[in-house]
Amino acid sequence: MKIFRVTSVLVTLGLAASLLSGCSATVNLDAAPDANNPTCAEQSVRLPDEIEGLARRTTNAQATGAWGAPTAVIFRCGVAPVEVSKLACVTTSEIDWLVDDSNAPSYRFITFARTPATEVIVDSKVTSGAAVLDALAGAVARAKVSKRCSG
């Protein structure tokens, strides 16, 4: 009888652990081509635990971040730098961003003229792009700037 109870408790604990781990599933992302850049590591350690009430989640790729369940914000450092673009360029918290609205209400923001470049994807039905970019500015500011947005 005692062995049955111990086994039953272990099975119950195992089930509980597997159910709890399902609540905080890892977000599967692809690392950017230059994700191993040391500046991406500097950015990654400075990512906030929360953005606009959205909790940070675990990701499976280097130099990435994700917030919200379901995911509403994605961060990837190490994308190709952009210095010339027809996309609109906006500045928030002294960081210049190119705005790709081709998949609205999901917006893609790419740092302008920073090496390495950073990409942020925001579901605007859940949170404000400007608020997200402001929250990430402290981390993103680590990248080298070669020029600024022009009027």
What does this structure look like?
With 151 residues, the chain is of the alpha+beta class. Helices cover 27% and strands 32% of the residues. The protein has one domain. It is built from 3 helices and 10 strands, in the order ααβββββββββαβ. The strands form 2 sheets. Strands 1-2-3-4-9-7-6-5 form an 8-stranded antiparallel β-sheet. A hairpin with a 6-residue loop joins strand 2 and strand 3. The protein is globular and about 40 Å long. The relative contact order is 0.17.
CA-CA gap between termini: 79 Å
Mean pLDDT: 87
Most strands sheet? 8 strands, antiparallel
Number of strands: 10
H/I helix tally = 3
User: Beta fraction of the residues?
Assistant: 25-35%
Percent of residues in helical segments? Answer: 25-40%
The class by helix and strand makeup works out as alpha+beta
What labels describe this entry?
globular, 151 residues, 8-stranded antiparallel β-sheet, two-stranded antiparallel sheet, 3 helices
Describe the structure concisely:
With 151 residues, this protein is α+β, with helices and mostly antiparallel strands. The chain contains 3 helices and 10 strands.
Q: How is the topology of this model organized?
A:
Blueprint: H1 2-23, H2 38-44, E1 50-51, E2 54-57, E3 64-67, E4 73-79, E5 88-92, E6 95-103, E7 106-111, E8 114-115, E9 117-123, H3 129-140, E10 144-145
Antiparallel strand pairs: 1-2, 2-3, 3-4, 4-9, 5-6, 6-7, 7-9, 8-10
